[in-house]
Amino acid sequence: MNTRPANTHLPLVFAAVAVVLFGCGKNDETAATGGAATSAVSTELQPHQQLAKDVFKELVETDTTFTGNTTIAAERLAARAIAAGFPDEDVHVVGPSETKGNLVVRLRGRDSGQKPLLLLAHIDVVDANPEDWTMDPFTFIEQDGYFYGRGTADDKNEAAIHFANLIRLKEEGFQPDRDIIVALTADEESVDNTDNGVQWLLANRPELIDAAYVINEGGGGAMRNGERISNNVQASEKVYQSFALRVTNPGGHSSLPTKENAIYRLADALIRLRAHDFPVSLNEVTRAFFERSKELEDGELAAAMEGVLQTPPNPSAVAFLSRTPYYNARLRTTCVATMLEGGHADNALPQSAQASVNCRMLPTDDPAAVKETLVTVIGDPQVAVTPITPPYPAPPSPLTPEMLGAVEAVTEEMWPGVPVIPTMSTGITDAYYLRNAGIPVYGISGIFDDINENRAHGQNERVPVQSFFEGQEFLYRLTRRLSSGDVE
Ligand SMILES: [Zn+2]
After folding, report:
1. 8 Å CB contact between 402 and 278
2. Are residues 311 and 209 part of one domain?
3. How far is the CA of 125 from the centre of ligand 1 (A)?
4. Dihedral angle computed from the Cα positions of residues 22, 25, 31 and 35, in that order, rounded to the nearest 10 degrees
5. Which of 10, 14, 334, 354 has its CA 20 to 30 A from that of 322?
6. How far is C-alpha 270 from the geometric centre of its chain's CA atoms?
7. CA of 253 to the centre of ligand 1 (A)
8. Structural domains in the chain (count)
9. Is the pTM of this model over 0.85?
10. In whole angstroms, what is the distance from residue 442 CA to residue 433 CA?
11. Which pLDDT tens digit goes with each residue over 399-438?
12. Which domain holds residue 291?
């Protein structure tokens, strides 16, 4: 279940996160002016890079849209893993149906006492209409320093990288302390989630993916005009819940109107809701986000980030940041009207009116308290407030020295001076289910892209060739470090 807000030109640090989570096509001017691409062409590749590229191509050219088939893609990779020497008992293609298969491959560690490291990516993609693209979305194309195709930025790039890195570790005879699991799953993108692979595995084969922590999508490197700005680690996602606001009324003939009207009463309630801002509340992740982001900003923005970190937060700093939807959404829970319906006939007074209000709650806020606040703000017992979806509380993942330290160390090795910034997303990934199951998840890729580039779910989706292979090397080193404390 992933719902995505529309994008505008995003300020600094979080655009990289956007590359993964928010999807709308962007036109090509970025490539001309500030794209992250270099003239890198993927020739003379090392064997593990060639494998990553071959797997990437195979995945992009396998139809894994909602009506497609992830089992075909999973089976092909399973055959590669077996050919690389993984025993049958460590290679699984399992799922709720013939077309919704999930691949799980395990590289055994020497110390079974430690819980595994899980490398997670989804291999399903949202649909793409070839008429909207300037090239075929389901053909893997290398052009102008980019790899193009549906899923190249969300999320087949990370799937190919994790799989190729596991094969490389196997072929190098690397034996980690803890098991390393690669899970490539189905239906992360589907709205109703019935066949969501992570949910299915947690419910039916939890032993296959149980882990100490998980590396997932949701993070990434931010660039501007070819310069690397920050390497972002997504450690938290807001909690999604929608409420129905409903008013009923006896109605009557519209030629005899009264001041008491279901639509007006609902409209008044919505106006009161619009005026309400939930209180500012920072958690470990958002505090670290503002602390580190302020070092990258200057002027009023840097001062406001400084101010919001005070206890209590400086009111004018809060007011300043609240004017930018991106920062506002990181300061507090938000609830907004998204859908409206009312009335049954043009010549009749409405007998009912209903609105849908979508809330994105801070993971540290209590959903029941948020509902109570809605009732209080609306302040009208004739407006019934009813949950439409259950909340899925998912605690932020702790910024442990083990995890953050490892990411910082490898980032410094590969991109000296580039800061690591923890982030909280407003969108949702499968981390939702794992965090809810008590397994910490970190969105990390080391794949850098321009802050104004966000083609995930959009037209002409792409990833810079150089960033893809650098991301492969970054994740390879991080995987070694987290699975064995092995410092390259
Ligand atoms: Zn995704």
Report:
1. no
2. no
3. 8
4. 0
5. 354
6. 29
7. 50
8. 3
9. yes
10. 13
11. 999 999 999 999 999 999 999 999 999 989 999 999 999 9
12. 281-325
Phi first, then psi, for residue 348 (nearest 5°) are: -130, 145
Q: How far does the centroid of ligand 1 lie from the alpha carbon of residue 465, in Å?
A: 19
DSSP annotation of 89 reads G
Sequence-separated (6 or more) residues with CB below 8 Å from residue 316: 304, 307
Residues 27 and 86 reside in one and the same domain:
yes
Full DSSP string of 198-250: HHHHHHH-HHHH--SEEEESS-EEEEETTEEEEEEEEEEEPEEEEEEEEEE--
Q: Which residues of 470-483 are buried (b: 16+ CB within 10 A; e: fewer)?
A: bbbbbbbbbbbbbb
Residue bearing tokens 């938290």: 236
Cα(222) to ligand 1 centroid in Å equals 17
Do residues 192 and 339 both lie within one domain?
A: no
Span from the CA of 455 to the centroid of ligand 1 (angstroms):
12
Distance (angstroms) between ligand 1 centre and the Cα of 70 equals: 15
Same domain for 292 and 339: no
Cα of 154 from ligand 1 centre, angstroms: 5
Distance CA 268, CA 351 (A): 16
**Strand positions, DSSP E, 50-194:** 91-94, 102-107, 117-122, 141-143, 146-148, 180-185
Cα 25 versus chain centre, distance = 17
State whether the Cα torsion 28-32-35-37 is positive or negative. Answer: positive
Same domain, 161 and 290: no
Q: What angle do CA 296, 299, 302 make, to 5 degrees?
A: 45
Measured between alpha carbons, how far is residue 161 from residues 75, 190, 319, 332, 379 in Å?
17, 23, 42, 35, 52
From first CA to last CA, the distance across the chain in angstroms is 38
Q: How many A from CA of 24 to the centre of ligand 1?
A: 13
**Each residue's pLDDT tens digit, 431-486:** 999 999 999 999 999 999 998 888 999 999 999 999 999 999 999 999 999 998 65
